[in-house]
């Protein structure tokens, strides 16, 4: 059973609306000011809010703005059914956009505005586009099936350059063998030394430089002619 909160300062309108909804099987709570409506909403368990925007004290617009702050973006709230589709309302774009999602075998979305009749037209327009969407999906499915058939046909075909590839692979293997690239280890004497056994460049720089010894070059007594 849906729990509906009616916030209306006019006693007659509030009471008559509540009686009508109760006859339809709904559970109704009544508030006659924005402040009272806020307290009943904060108590929890309310599925739908019917509010008059022109309320004394806390106005209906201010009450809705406060309620919006507590609604998580993207969290859908079920609001009933329309033309056989379950409806869920969600708030997106940081509370600036209301989106109604209609769920059946497919999901349809409609952004809502401030005008009631305009919202009904948006919902009907979203549902009337169903045949076009179904046709587009069938077309995409046919394209996928055609692509799968083409791929399956290509799988069984031999590679056109297979012979050329085998010849070039054999030639490359022969060149690698002649150059000694594959599977040949370096001689033991040429293996890298362990880190601790390597000479230290820093230690070599710290050692004093040995003075050069003078060598007496023999004099050349040949005369130029």
What would a concise description of this structure say?
By secondary structure, the chain is α/β, with parallel strands linked by helices. It is built from 7 helices and 7 strands, in the order E-H-E-H-E-H-E-E-E-E-H-H-H-H.
Describe this structure in words.
The protein is an alpha/beta fold and 225 residues long. Among the domains are: 1-70, Rossmann fold; 72-152, no CATH class. It has helices at residues 11-23, 34-42, 60-69, 116-128, 130-155, 162-179, 201-206; strands at residues 3-7, 27-31, 48-51, 77-82, 85-92, 97-103, 107-112. The strands form two sheets. The protein has a four-stranded antiparallel beta sheet with strand order 4-5-6-7. Strands 2-1-3 form a three-stranded parallel beta sheet. A hairpin with a 2-residue loop joins strand 4 (77-82) and strand 5 (85-92). It is elongated, with a radius of gyration of 43 Å. The model is unreliable at 185-193 (pLDDT under 50).
């Amino acid at each position: 059973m849906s729990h509906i909160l009616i916030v209306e300062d006019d006693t007659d309108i509030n009471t008559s609306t509540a009686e009508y909804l109760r006859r339809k099987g709904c559970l109704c709570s009544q508030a006659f000011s924005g402040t009272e409506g806020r307290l009943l909403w904060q108590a929890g368990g309310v599925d739908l809010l019917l509010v008059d925007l022109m309320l004394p004290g806390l106005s209906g617009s201010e009450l809705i703005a406060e309620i919006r702050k507590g609604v998580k973006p993207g969290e859908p709230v079920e609001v009933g059914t329309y033309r056989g589709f379950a409806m869920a309302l969600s708030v997106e774009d940081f509370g600036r956009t209301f989106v109604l999602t209609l769920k059946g075998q497919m999901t349809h979305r409609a952004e809502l505005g401030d005008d009631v009749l305009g919202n009904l037209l948006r919902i009907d327009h979203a549902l009337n586009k169903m045949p076009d969407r179904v046709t587009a999906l069938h077309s995409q499915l046919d394209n996928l099936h055609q692509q799968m058939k083409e791929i399956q046909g290509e799988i069984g075909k031999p590679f056109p350059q297979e012979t050329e590839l085998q010849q070039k692979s054999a030639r490359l293997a022969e060149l690698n063998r002649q150059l000694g690239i594959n599977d040949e280890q370096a001689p033991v004497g040429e293996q890298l030394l362990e880190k601790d056994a390597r000479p230290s460049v820093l230690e070599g720089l710290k050692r004093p430089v040995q003075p050069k010894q003078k060598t007496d070059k023999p004099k050349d007594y040949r005369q130029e002619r």
